[in-house]
Specification:
Pfam families: MS_channel_1st, MS_channel_2nd
Shape: elongated
Largest sheet: 5 strands, antiparallel
Order of helices and strands: HHHHHEEEEEEHEEH
Strand order of the largest sheet: 4-3-2-1-5
Number of strands: 8
Strand content: 15-25%
Number of domains: 3
CATH architecture of the largest domain: Orthogonal Bundle
InterPro entries: LSM_dom_sf, MS_channel_1st, MscS_beta-dom_sf, MscS_channel_2nd, MscS_channel_C_sf, MscS_channel_TM-2, YbiO_bact
Subcellular location: Cell membrane
CATH class of the largest domain: Mainly Alpha
Main location: membrane
Number of helices: 7
Membrane topology: Multi-pass membrane protein
Radius of gyration: 39 Å
CATH topology of the largest domain: Helix Hairpins
Helix content: 55-70%
Length: 305
Amino acid sequence: MLSFFLAVGTTSSSDNSIIEPAEKQMNAFQKWWQQINWESITALFIQKTLMIIFLLILFLVIWRITLAVIDRTYQSYGKRMNMNIGRMNTIHTLIRNIVQYTIGFFFLYSLLSVLGIPVGSLLAGAGIAGVAIGLGAQGFMNDIITGFFIIMEQQIDVGDYVKLMNLDVEGTVTSVGLRTLQLKAVDGTIHFIPNRNITTISNTSRANMQVVVDVRIDPSEGISAIRSVIEEANKRIEVAYKDSITTPPVIFGLVDIGNGNYAIRTNFYTKNGFQYKIKEDLLSDSIRSLLAAGFSIPNEPILKK
């Protein structure tokens, strides 16, 4: 019996040694919980939320109004000034991008300030870190500098058809930015090219384009008669495209195109953008007229060295 009471007493004392620390921890948590000023926290949360909502509305209104003013100015200025449409589109896109980046920067700055984040300390730290980051961002800076001079020197405009000789890429310019150039190829492919990779730009949209048409012939059938047929085709194409051809088609003469093959070559200039269509039509008309006049068109393969 005595051993039973001793066992009970030992169990009770061990239970108390476990319960008492747990009660102390619970009491400490309750005291900490009760010391929290929930009214202040709730008021602060509501205040910050309202400030963030106010900032969102404010900067959204500023963003909408600013872009509307830019678009309206662009439209009115474009009507009054006789400027290249592509150049106007390029400047318009550039100004919109600069405004959007600027508004975004000030919005982020204001948002961090409302949240209580020390923006000044972050900017100071960013200045120190910027030195290290700048060493790894030389390519980015090269993009910006090259893009700036491409735009300021008016090397290309939106809508121009250009060839980047060092990259073997060509297409229609869809966007000119400080960092990248966007080209749309004939098959619809969009090329995004960092400005630092651009070394030589061949712009085919700034002047009249030369058209060279070679019509293969058999000289033994009579060069003079063949030439007369081709001259008639040249006259017809000149009349059909009188608004697009800047210089009348002129027969250069007989040329050797290799492997014992000869052709009558015609040269002329057209407005940019019309050269391919006119060249195709003239070549088709010349071949059709020669065949109708009883002349043959050689089809031997031409071997280029």
